[in-house]
Amino acid sequence: MPLNALIIKSAKPKDKKYRLSDSGGLYMEVTPSGGKLWRMKYRFLKKEKLLSFGAFPIVTLKEARLYRDEAKSLLSKGIDPSVVKKELKESKLAASKNSFKAVTQEWISKNSTKWSSSNTNNVSKRLEQHVFPHIGNKSISTITAPDLLTVINRIEKTGTIYTAHKTLQNCGQVFRYAMATARCTTDPTTALKGALPPTQPKHHASITDPKKIGALLRAINGYEGNFITQCALKLAPLVFVRPGELRHAEWQEVDIEKAEWRIPAEKMKMKAVHIVPLSKQAIAILEDIYTVTGHGKYVFPSVRTNTRPMSENTVNAGLRRLGYTKEEITGHGFRSMASTLLNEQGWHWDAIERQLAHAERNSIRAAYNYAEHLPERIKMMQHYADYLDGLANGADIVSINKNRKT
Q: Does this entry carry the keyword Lipid metabolism (predicted)?
């Protein structure tokens, strides 16, 4: 007698598993634990074989009969349904391993050791938020330029053109990695060149007028907020490192006797060791803050716990408290300030660029030349600190080293 809903519902578990037959080799296996599993018995090349169709009620009686009929259709053509099922499973597994999401995660994992943690987080977040929901599960070899353009256009419509460009750039890197690992044969991003409007150059707000710099430095010296924040604000213009490098500074990296701060490669954007010569003014600030944070790991710890560095917004928030808007100055703007003034004052361009730790075209050269122009940089950093002191004290504005040749 074929099965029906009442028979299936009434089936209770017993000490041993048992069968409830339907028709055409289809039956339900009831387990001692109460499971109700769909099975189909058939013969192929004179051998008895078994197919599994899943468990009830996820797979209904109607669906189980459809699976049975599909299997019988294959048998009538001389095809073993078990082999087809295995091949389909392997195909799905291969597709999941070669999905855009899987390839992207593999690419990020391989490159994250060479990237800064912030870059890794930015790339991951960008692709997870904007790309994975739409084409993440598609096999990377099947994704076309129109597929990708639809994704990128969604970002563009939100008004974040920069994010759209960066996302498209990251997708191109993933596709080229997939090509190199034989997961696809083309990079559809190459067909999308010119598909997005150009981005406006992003400039970090900075103050470069000497009179206004003097006023800013006096405001920082009079800062009445958190002492650690004030010290970070005081040190920022003297070392002009990236804000993330400043807030992650550790005491073990600072050598007061040598008057240098040596930032490990893994913390730097270009993954090369960076030496920051410390002026007398910078050392004085570090000695002051050592009495407060010297017992911990970070020079500028979080206000909540000394096991983490200060927030990425702390320096900018301090500048806002002083009355400066984000259009006037940011923590990153101290770098532009130093670059502008030092170039105007005639310091060697290579020394300035090396001290700013700007991108080195040859990454191997960058790794071995972190001490390049160091004597010049030591002299430059002390002169620059003296110059800033003069501005803060309201001295006449004169160019230091104004006769230096570039």
A: no
The answer on 249 and 168 residing in a single domain is no
Q: Which pLDDT does position 98 carry in this prediction?
A: 86
- Is residue 157 in a domain? yes
Q: Give the per-residue pLDDT at 95.
A: 63
- Is the domain of 164 the same as that of 49? no
Whether residues 165 and 251 fall in one domain: no
Domain tally, the chain? 3
**The token pair that represents 167 in the structure block:** 């996302």
Q: What is the pLDDT of residues 80-112, one digit of tens each?
A: 999 888 878 766 666 667 899 999 999 999 988
162 classed as catalytic: no
- Same-domain pairing of 307 and 249: yes
Examine the domain organization and report whether 365 and 314 are in the same domain: yes
**Would you call 368 a catalytic residue per the annotation?**
yes
Annotation says 358 is catalytic: yes
Choosing from 166, 183, 248, 335, which is the catalytic residue? 335
Is pTM beyond 0.90 here?
no
Owning domain of residue 349? 210-392
What is residue 66's predicted lDDT score, i.e. its pLDDT?
95
Q: Which of 9, 211, 358, 365 is catalytic?
A: 358
> Is 405 within a domain?
no
Catalytic residue among 65, 274, 332, 377: 332
Question: What CATH number did the domain enclosing 75 receive?
Answer: 3.30.160.390
